[in-house]
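Objective 1b of the project was to move from sequence-level analysis to a structural picture of ligand recognition. The entry below was assembled by the postdoctoral researcher (A.K.) and checked by the PI before modelling. It contains the amino acid sequence of the target and the SMILES of the bound compound, zinc ion.
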Amino acid sequence: MNPEDIGRLFYMLLDTSDPTIADRLMNPATLEDCLLRIQADPLLDHTRLYRVARARAAAMGTENYLEPVFQQDFDNYLAEMTDIGRMIAECIPHRYVLTNSREAMCIETACGRVIVVSEVLRYALYFMNLAFGELYGLPSVPDDVQGHAMIVAARTMIMTEALDFDLDPRGIVPNDIDAFLRHMTEWQMKFVIGHEFSHHRFGHKGLGLRMTRPIRNDPGEGKGHEWQSYKRSWHEEYEADIGAIEEIEGEDSRKLISTAAILFFLYLEFFERIEEALDATLADIDTHPPTSERLRNVVDKFGILIDVDWKWAAAQLESIQDHAKAIIEIYNDDPNLLLEYGSAYLGSWKGPDLIDRVDY
Ligand SMILES: [Zn+2]
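Corresponding predicted holo structure:
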């Protein structure tokens, strides 16, 4: 077999129910095909991601490994948008991607622009919501579980945590708490999705394209492909943050997305502090404005809806920086805490040991 035939065979494996899938992925002719290709390549580059996709397809009773799993976040955000906003947003194909990239971004493909949102970010936020539940009224969680949740979240964002949460959920979270976490995580992702839709809706031109390598700190599972994503001006970022919330008209929903956005920026501050301590070059200083300014912008405009002011937000920012410092201190004594590739667990909520390739 020549390399093209081998490539075709691999692409066919991703959806044996669709005889056109290999052609669509190898020679993408539409925006949807180009987007699908972005989703497909990481699954073929990484055995672990492929196994996750296979397990998901089996759970859904489909042959299609590219069936989106969290697509309802997009649908639910679109459903709450203004009619005009929705019409514009629906024009740009959008999808979650399971890969070692942690951002949401607008990518320029051979067929045009698409929005991709990283599942990595979604998982990291879930664990941050568990760690910092007191910020939004989560029923009490043991201290050791909170501490471990911070570590899982930090490792997820710096790409040392294996991306197989579907197979090995890192612990047993009680159902009522899990429902809280899922709800808040979904709203945070809706804010992130709304931010990307806002760039599109406002016609932001960006500051040109940057090469984005979806693989970072990868433990040698493959080289991956580079994507061309848009570099934004600070002004565009501030405008997209506000636009993501303004587009949501319902009173209750606007309160929820405001809370979600404020928590999102607090968590982002935590991640940035950890990354700076590990490697100053990891800080995305040239792609986004300072997180504290983005937080302040949102608090000044929407804080009143949820009885939050800058004094409160600044105190929380300081508190979350202290938590990041505490994690960094432990890391300084034991670098493996953050840098060793593998899986971290939720302390006393860990549950039984699961063995890779035996239990999942
Ligand atoms: Zn942006």
